[in-house]
Amino acid sequence: MNNPSPPRLESAIRLALAPLLRAEGFVGSGRRFHQCVGPWIQIITVQGSRYGGSFAVNLGIHFASAPDLAGNPPDPKKMSEAHCEFRRRLSDSNADRWWKHEPDHASMLTAVESAASVYAHFGRRYFELACADLNAITPEALSSGTYDLQGFGTTKVRLGLALARIRKLQGRSDESREFAQYAVQHVGSATALESELRVLAAT
Hints:
By secondary structure, this protein is of the alpha+beta class.
């Protein structure tokens, strides 16, 4: 006699989260979805706990023309949020959130429905506002800290490098130099970034 297959989180995602994401333009299946909005790649992945019984929803943003964090040309059809320059976990605050569930379909479905509701109320705005700020942030705003990336975390030096790269690709060379110059001045222990920053600061 065959034993029934154990319930899978992917089934709950297919029912409760995937339709919401596809209605917004995301494509994908299983636990990974992506879309391109203007120059930005947006990635969503569902990460199960290594111990079982819970999951988190990871969000990633990456500039479509810039190398990913592994130094490769970004491929939105294959990359995960771990390849993205800007990353955060979905929640209704700046804290990580893990959705707990029992090992049965009903509990998994309830948890994924809750995550989908949080995405609908918060996640889509995180993407929208962070991308808008990344497009608009100036070197002066970086220096003074007057910007809001909606919890997509990075250091100021790493952000300076990312924006220097992005502005150079956008043809905004003066801003690119200023971002790189700021990052060079504050590079501190991030010496692995210094060589590229000095090149960008001088071009």
